[in-house]
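User: As part of a screening pipeline, I want to sanity-check one entry by hand. Below is the sequence and the SMILES for zinc ion. Please return the complex as structure tokens so I can compare it with the automated output.
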Amino acid sequence: MTKEELQEALKPIAQGLFGKQGARRYERPHFPLRSLEEMLKDLTQIPPEEWFAYVFSREPLNGKFKDSQRKQWMGKSIACGREYAGKICREYGCSEPEQLAKAMGMKVSYPTYPEKADRVLFAEFREPDTIHIYMDAVKKAGKFLAKPEISEILTDKLDIANLLLAHELFHYVEEKHKKEIFTRTEKVRLWSLGPIHNDSAVIALSEIAAMAFAGELTGLPYSPYVMDVFLVYGYSPEEASGLYEEMMELAGRKPCAPISS
Ligand SMILES: [Zn+2]
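Assistant: Here is the complex for your manual check:
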């Protein structure tokens, strides 16, 4: 993947970083620009549980659920991620994501760009034991993190590559424990016909738990979902502003005023 391809791939970002299904937008709407500092201040104030509407808006099966169900799953998936963070730390005797990855025998690489341009990705886990962290996005955000007014909001607990690594480690842990882990055993019935039925896992549960796992391991004092806006901002402040607006509305909060031009 080249720089140009990555930029192209980042355009329909409002469609979801986790590959929301549906028709692609042909014309990009324009979002009023907002200050990165103001956006991060607002987003770091949203408690982990209150991200449920945003998280599920990226879930392919979302239309089948009610808010009461989404909230319940949010709580259970966060608890699941935190529980496994504790378990894994005890099992391997460390909590630092890079050390954990080594102890687990993972192959971790840090290429600049993803190989394929078909999905927007900042990092990925590939079965059975490979994790890629794409450094272009990390470096772009790193430039903003070097500013005191930004690092003060995001705190010294934030190491972007480490946070992405911790998230991907959860997907490995989840695969290893798929027979008993909540995010995999919890299923929805897509259809049934007499004794025949088709059950499906809910992708959002895995993503929520992966974020909670990463937050717990790194001690981040806010939801790692804040990274969606922070990482996108390096490519497009406008798309990041649109994503921020959507997050705030879905969390029932009022977005800050746009930068007046
Ligand atoms: Zn994930």
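Points to compare against the pipeline: The beta strands are 107-109, 123-126, 130-133, 187-193, 196-201. Residues 130 and 184 are 20 Å apart (CA to CA).
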